[in-house]
Automatic annotation (TrEMBL):
<keyword id="KW-0378">Hydrolase</keyword>
<dbReference type="Pfam" id="PF11940">
    <property type="entry name" value="DUF3458"/>
</dbReference>
<keyword id="KW-0031">Aminopeptidase</keyword>
<dbReference type="InterPro" id="IPR035414">
    <property type="entry name" value="Peptidase_M1_pepN_Ig-like"/>
</dbReference>
<dbReference type="GO" id="GO:0008237">
    <property type="term" value="F:metallopeptidase activity"/>
</dbReference>
<dbReference type="Pfam" id="PF17900">
    <property type="entry name" value="Peptidase_M1_N"/>
</dbReference>
<dbReference type="InterPro" id="IPR045357">
    <property type="entry name" value="Aminopeptidase_N-like_N"/>
</dbReference>
<comment type="similarity">
    <text>Belongs to the peptidase M1 family.</text>
</comment>
<dbReference type="InterPro" id="IPR001930">
    <property type="entry name" value="Peptidase_M1"/>
</dbReference>
<protein>
    <recommendedName>
        <fullName>Aminopeptidase N</fullName>
        <ecNumber>3.4.11.2</ecNumber>
    </recommendedName>
</protein>
<feature type="domain" description="Peptidase M1 alanyl aminopeptidase Ig-like fold">
    <location>
        <begin position="445"/>
        <end position="548"/>
    </location>
</feature>
<dbReference type="InterPro" id="IPR042097">
    <property type="entry name" value="Aminopeptidase_N-like_N_sf"/>
</dbReference>
<dbReference type="InterPro" id="IPR024601">
    <property type="entry name" value="Peptidase_M1_pepN_C"/>
</dbReference>
<keyword id="KW-0645">Protease</keyword>
<dbReference type="Pfam" id="PF01433">
    <property type="entry name" value="Peptidase_M1"/>
</dbReference>
<feature type="domain" description="Aminopeptidase N-like N-terminal">
    <location>
        <begin position="87"/>
        <end position="187"/>
    </location>
</feature>
<dbReference type="Pfam" id="PF17432">
    <property type="entry name" value="DUF3458_C"/>
</dbReference>
């Protein structure tokens, strides 16, 4: 199956043979193609080496020091151009290629979207444009000239500053951009087309004036306003918290609807999926506004963590991504609702990254090998990578962490470095040893901690015994114990915080971070005058699973009183898990389902407590199926859905009055606030809306007439997209025709809005109605749907692949359907296809019948002769 497989290994890294002092690119845009002339000043590091460049574009000409090379002087094979003999000292190499952007559906390299041209070069797109050392440790100064038709391409952009421009014959014009900062090819960008611009400005703390420019389709211009404001907040925050200032006089963001990922941090010219730029109250939910602020921040923060200091090789991807995700998470948390944001991030990590770490694709934060780099833009590299950075912060404190950051920039500004360099900066700046911490980069799998405690009344001590186990993963069987920061506090039986003393410290404290770094360890808390309940892993201080033998009463105590908002939420999660487990048992033994009255009571008290509405909403989040089957094999997905649904149903019934009360309260808040703020996004209002929408979802499970109320009051209450979408989501699973009617109206009302239509397709793909597969098949024919647009594919097919009852339908229809479309998409966009393939990651852990059905489809994909290496790598790993 897998002949011709090329695996890249971290251990094989070799420094480049050549440096590029300057690169000068000229793009001539013609009707049917674009010519690229690439002139490089190349400096050999060592004499006598052949010059090997990466590339796959149509090659027209190679000129070395002014002399045109003839075919025997070079060779082309496997996307590499080898020039056998080059001078020993600096030489000029000029290569001309021809590109066909309208035919490029991979959305990598130079491609057309609408009538405009865009690039995407991370990680290895630049080789589709020209022949170059397409690796992040070759950094050069780029000058880019673009020549095009004035009417078709009035706007022509590239990185850095616009240094010159002019008119040409035949209604053509040219521009020249120069980026003064040396950068790798993956950060190169070019955009050309008809675009409107929304402008702003920012004065940096040293007084530099920065022009901020957001480019969109003309009709979308006003919708970039929120993103522009977010950018200003991000620029200010990076100065305030990280001491980092922007370095060019211009910062541009371009929105494009055909984009494989979220956004891209090209130097001075970020390119964004429209989803993370465009928003208005009528088209975007509060969650969309929050995501925009986060992604704008993320890409902006890359300017220092990614661009000024970049990665030596792609194995180090988390050096920039884990760190930048940590930075964007902190930015969002500093902006508003720290506690709720943290819980949200943990939830994503636990339901998705933990699953990745327990499946066929498990890999360390710094992978040791890959076949297709595009497959390694993963939750592990990004989200677990951010947790790893957060652990430095937890261990060193804000001040120590910032000292580490400063040393990192001092040592490595302008360089391409490794995760070890980052760790060394953190260690050296703080005079601590972080050698063992390196295991977080090299060992995959979610560490598991078994904990138990005992209280000694005579000695007034509480002892916490911890034992860690790192599960084997496909790449590694035996693992070493890791450094795990465990943040902890103690509560007495009334829920009050209890101060304690650790050995060797003089003062009493109410919270500490245990450095748990051996397989087994006991920590003793002194001066503890009474029995306590430990509040463990506060703030989710490490990306681990922790099991402590709490009684239900302990958990209810933590839920009612813990001052740490994560631990408090976690107590509710554990109670939900236990209730779920008893439902699962009852279903398996055909017993009546338990009612969970005590849990309902505890949740009712929590809802009635004086806490932030957004926090109330997250307390009502029941763990997802993926979290619930975290450590299970032979999974029957249907049973998980049933047992979880039954839990929701029973809680909703017994909490009906409280739920109604708070729903009405939220309605009232919303009505009142409307007089003050005209429905603009605001974190406080977003919290109320989030509670209201969550309560709607619970409400329809218990209150029969709520559906009718929603239908009847829809147009009156749907005053913004958060409400509109919230109501549709609440009734989306109902088999009633009214759901279809409302959804159809929604689709018609927003037919012209690309991003709202994504929501329409998500609702179809994620519905639990029995006719969902038919509705999805029909939606594929919808005029607003296109298989070539990744957002559409993710909305409809991606949501279907996460739709547990339908994707895992017992007759295999879900698997077959998805496989059909994976094969179709793989022909033109391997990146999007290989993401979809990962819906099959659960294969090995499924019950036998579904496993057989899945195997049939996986084998069908695997047998496809033209299958991309992206998809092949994943399928091969799943079927091992
Ligand atoms: N560096 C970007 C992510 C990104 C990666 C690959 C892309 O195309 C294949 C696009 C974007 C980020 O972290 O935002
Ligand atoms: Zn990033």
């Amino acid at each position: 199956m897998s002949e011709n497989k090329v695996v890249h290994y971290l251990k094989d890294y070799q420094a480049p043979d050549f440096a590029v002092a300057e690169i000068d690119l000229t793009y001539t845009i013609e009707e049917a193609y674009t010519l690229v002339r690439n002139r490089m000043m190349i400096v050999p590091h060592e004499v006598g080496r052949p010059c090997v460049l990466d590339g796959s574009a149509e090659l027209l000409q190679i000129v070395l020091n002014g002399k045109c090379l003839s075919p025997h002087e070079y060779a082309i094979a496997d996307e590499k151009l080898t020039i056998h003999t080059v001078p020993d000292t600096q030489f000029e190499l000029e290569i001309t290629t021809r590109l066909y952007p309208a035919q490029n559906k991979t959305l990598m390299g130079l491609y057309e979207s609408g009538d405009n041209l865009y690039t995407q070069n991370e990680p290895e797109g630049f080789r589709k444009i020209t022949y170059y050392f397409d690796r992040p440790d070759v950094m050069s100064q780029f000058t880019t000239t673009i020549i095009g038709d004035k009417r078709r391409y009035p706007v022509m952009l590239s990185n850095g500053n616009l240094i010159d421009s002019g008119e040409l014959d035949n209604d053509r014009h040219w521009v020249c951009w120069r980026d003064p900062f040396a950068k790798p090819s993956y950060l190169f960008a070019l955009v050309a087309g008809q675009l409107a611009v929304l402008e702003g400005n920012f004065t940096t703390r040293s007084g530099k004036e920065v022009a901020l420019k957001f480019y969109t389709r003309p009709e979308d211009r006003e919708k970039a306003g929120f993103a522009l404001e977010s950018l200003k907040h991000a620029m200010q925050w990076d100065e305030d918290r990280f001491n980092l200032e922007y370095d060019l006089n211009i910062f541009m963001v371009v929105a494009v609807s055909d984009f494989n990922m979220g956004a891209m941090e090209n130097k001075g010219l970020n390119i964004f999926n429209t989803k993370y730029v465009l928003a208005s109250n009528d088209t975007a939910t509060d969650a969309d506004f929050e995501a925009i602020e986060g992604v704008i921040g993320h890409e902006y923060f890359h300017n220092w963590t990614g661009n000024r200091v970049t990665c030596r090789d792609w194995f180090q991807l988390s050096l920039k991504e884990g760190l930048t995700v940590f930075r964007d998470q902190e930015f969002s948390a500093d902006r508003a609702s720290r506690a709720v944001r943290r819980i949200h991030n943990v939830r994503v990590l636990r339901s998705m990254q933990f699953a990745e770490d327990a499946g066929p694709m498990a890999h360390p934060v710094r992978p040791a090998s890959y076949e297709e780099m595009n497959n390694f833009y993963t939750l592990t590299v990004y989200e677990k990578g951010a947790e790893v950075v957060r652990m430095y912060h937890t261990l060193l404190g804000e001040e120590g962490f910032q000292k580490g950051m400063q040393l990192y920039f001092q040592r490595h500004d302008g360089q391409a470095v490794t995760c070890d360099d980052f760790r060394a900066a953190m260690a050296d700046a703080n005079g601590v040893n972080l050698d063992q911490f390196a295991l977080w980069y090299s060992q995959a799998g979610t560490p598991q901690i078994k904990a138990h405690g005992d209280y000694d009344a005579h000695n007034q001590t509480f002892s916490l015994h911890l034992r860690q186990f790192i599960p084997p993963t496909p790449d590694m069987a035996d693992k070493q114990p890791m450094v795990i920061p465990v943040k902890i506090g103690l509560l007495d039986k009334n829920g009050a915080s209890v101060a304690f003393k650790m050995a060797g410290t003089a003062d009493k404290t109410e919270e500490t971070v245990l450095v748990f770094n051996q397989t087994e360890q006991t920590f003793v808390f002194h001066d503890v005058a009474k029995e306590v309940v430990p509040s463990l892993l506060r703030g989710f201080s490490a990306p681990v699973r922790l099991d402590y033998p709490y009684s239900d009463a302990d958990l209810m105590l933590l839920l009612a009183h813990d001052s740490d908002s994560f631990a408090r939420w976690e107590a509710a999660q554990t109670l939900y898990r236990r209730a779920f487990a008893s439902n699962l048992d009852a279903l398996a033994s055909v017993q009546p389902l338990p009612q969970h009255a005590e849990l309902a009571q505890a949740l009712t008290s929590a809802l009635n407590a004086d806490i932030d509405p957004a926090y109330k909403a997250v307390l009502l989040q029941v763990p997802t199926e993926a979290e619930l089957w975290e450590d299970v094999s032979s999974i029957n997905p249907e049973q998980y859905v049933c047992a979880r649904q039954a839990l929701l149903q029973s809680l909703a019934s017994s909490m009906q009055d409280t739920l109604t009360h708070w729903r009405e309260w939220a309605d009232e808040q919303e009505r009142n606030s409307r007089h003050h703020a005209p429905q603009e996004y605001h974190p406080d209002l977003a919290g109320v809306r989030s509670l209201r929408n969550t309560l709607l979802q619970w409400g329809v499970l218990a209150t029969a007439d709520l559906l009718h109320n929603i239908v009847n009051e829809f147009s009156q209450r749907a005053t913004n997209m958060t409400h509109e979408y919230g109501m549709l989501a609440a009734i989306n699973h109902l088999s009633d025709d009214k759901r279809n009617d409302l959804l159809n109206q929604f689709g018609q009302r927003h037919a012209q809005d690309d991003l709202v239509m994504d929501k329409y397709f998500i609702l179809i793909g994620s519905s639990q109605r029995p006719d969902t597969l038919q509705q999805v098949e029909k939606a594929l024919q919808h005029p607003a749907f296109s298989l070539e647009n990744p957002n559409k594919v993710r909305s409809l097919l991606g949501s279907f692949s996460r739709n547990i009852p339908h994707f895992h339908a017992a007759d295999g229809s879900g698997y077959r359907f998805l496989a059909d479309y994976i094969l179709r998409i793989d022909e033109f966009n391997p990146q999007v296809a290989s993401r979809l393939v990962q819906a099959f990651n659960l294969y090995d852990r499924l019950e036998p019948q579904r496993k057989t059905l899945m195997a049939e489809q996986l084998q069908r994909i695997q047998k496809d002769e033209g299958l991309s290496k992206d998809s092949r790598e994943i399928v091969d790993k799943i079927l091992h």
